[in-house]
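Let us work through a complete example step by step.
Step 1: write down the sequence.
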Amino acid sequence: MIDLGISKMALIGAVALIVIGPEKLPRVARTVGALLGKAQRYVSDVKAEVNRSMDLDELKKMRETVEGAARDVENSIQTSASDFEKSWSEVADAALAPEPPSYKHPNKNWRLKQGAMPQWYKARNGVRTRALSGAARVARFRPPRAR
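Step 2: predict the structure and record it as tokens.
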């Protein structure tokens, strides 16, 4: 790199003042400053583009590794699923050979179950303790007759 110290900058400024002249020097300095700014922006844009391309390459590599891992998992799941299907079909074939016993209702007596409930619980929760026929229910809730 070029090492520009204060003494070298002063020497370049003195030569420019003599060569260009005091009238044109400010305009030339502005133009040189603008060109240097454009060059710096261009260099920073190139650096950013290189960094983006490097990140993109890393992301592509990462995507390929993730896709490979997903494929491996999918293959292992498919092989285990096929093994499961084979064993399931063997079990199902073995289970279908003898006929399963038919369903038999346990014949629980629900009245015994109702009777095992304590009276205080029935009273609190509004459980009927006596069975009413349809006619008795109508007679119970019929409004009284007017005489």
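Step 3: interpret the result. The CA atoms of residues 39 and 147 lie 115 Å apart.
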